Amino acid sequence: KTYPEVNFLNYKDRKKILVTGGAGFVGSHLVDKLMLQGHEITVMDNFFTGRKRNVEHWIGHENFELLNHDVVEPLYIEVDEIYHLASPASPPHYMFNPIKTIKTNTIGTINMLGLAKRVKAKILFASTSEVYGDPEKHPQDEGYWGHVNPIGPRACYDEAKRVAETMCYAYQKQENVDVRVARIFNTYGPRMHMNDGRVVSNFILQALQGIPMTVYGSGEQTRSFQYVTDLVDGLVALMASNYTKPTNIGNPDEHRIIEFATIIKNLLGGSSEIVNKPPVEDDPQKRKPDITTAKKHIHWQPKVPLMVGINKTIEYFRSELRRSKHSERNIWKPEYL
Ligand SMILES: NC(=O)c1ccc[n+]([C@@H]2O[C@H](COP(=O)([O-])OP(=O)(O)OC[C@H]3O[C@@H](n4cnc5c(N)ncnc54)[C@H](O)[C@@H]3O)[C@@H](O)[C@H]2O)c1
């Protein structure tokens, strides 16, 4: 087996990095970047929504380890940094078993903060723009406290992420743990789950299959989507910075849902009709990050234009739909190659 060529780092510069949820969509791209930089990576995943396929190009590499482990159970390993991403991210996945979603983000985060404390590792928690709920402030900056329904269908995710942030800062204050909190806004790209259920993947899959493209509600609600490699760059920059307060990582380029549907329909030029369905309960009407903090403190801003990202994502889903045999391996090369 051959591997993508990784940078050689000497003993002093090479870090041992744990990526929880590293077999998932975002995690696997982060793993690619950190592996190529030459670090030693341990992926811990229970494969609820993640797949070995996403990291198969690293299996067997001497800098790579894959652990089938649930973050709700403690883990004892030696690491320098922890990227804590383990958690289902799309509404159908996190609503599938709400209690498990709560446990993963609360008990799981306590476990990772405990590990960071014991081994004196830096820890980055993957929080979410969902902490702002259905926002009354637009765009959303980190000072906004949010507008979340604590007993609604999304609460298992939103509130669990909110209390997980609270835990991070309690460990920082009480135990001096070096924490980073990334508030991630909607992200898309290759390796998204086929059943992700969010607009970009839904529209692309529907258009590729020539079936109706479903818009929930009027389609006037807005979203801002960032391409996955921009997010990964932001996470790595945040970890490397000295900035410890919550940081929005997202693309402020805002579009109406109906615009996304039209862009994808026009790009694919298929026979799919755009149809409206009843709105989803507690669906936020507006989403747009204020990224002043990220620009100022971690010198990061997104780079990938929407059309470039959408085209790469279409290419990925097209090849996944064509796949008919198990022996057809994951030909998707790491984005950074
Ligand atoms: N993708 C986005 O748009 C987005 C937006 C905001 C926040 N986030 C956050 O980023 C992180 C990664 O999201 P993603 O889009 O890659 O989702 P994903 O579902 O593709 O990845 C999550 C990974 O975590 C694993 N996982 C879930 N529960 C686990 C458990 N109990 N123990 C161990 N592993 C577990 C899954 O198997 C999967 O590999 C999540 O924490 C999510 O909340 C993502």
TrEMBL record:
It is an enzyme of class 4 (lyase). InterPro entries: Epimerase_deHydtase, NAD(P)-bd_dom_sf, UXS-like. SUPFAM superfamilies: NAD(P)-binding Rossmann-fold domains. GO terms for molecular function: NAD+ binding; UDP-glucuronate decarboxylase activity. It is a single-pass type II membrane protein. Pathway: Nucleotide-sugar biosynthesis; UDP-alpha-D-xylose biosynthesis; UDP-alpha-D-xylose from UDP-alpha-D-glucuronate: step 1/1. This is UDP-glucuronic acid decarboxylase 1. One of its GO terms (biological process) is UDP-D-xylose biosynthetic process. Its EC number is 4.1.1.35. Residues 17-244 form the NAD-dependent epimerase/dehydratase domain. Belongs to the NAD(P)-dependent epimerase/dehydratase family. UDP-glucuronic acid decarboxylase subfamily. Pfam families: Epimerase (PF01370). Its main location: Golgi. Its cofactor is NAD(+). Gene3D superfamilies: NAD(P)-binding Rossmann-like Domain, UDP-galactose 4-epimerase, domain 1. GO terms for cellular component: cytoplasm; Golgi cisterna membrane; Golgi membrane. Keywords: Decarboxylase, Glycoprotein, Golgi apparatus, Lyase, Membrane, NAD, Signal-anchor, Transmembrane, Transmembrane helix. It catalyses: UDP-alpha-D-glucuronate + H(+) = UDP-alpha-D-xylose + CO2. It is found in: Golgi apparatus membrane; Golgi apparatus, Golgi stack membrane. It comes from the Eukaryota.
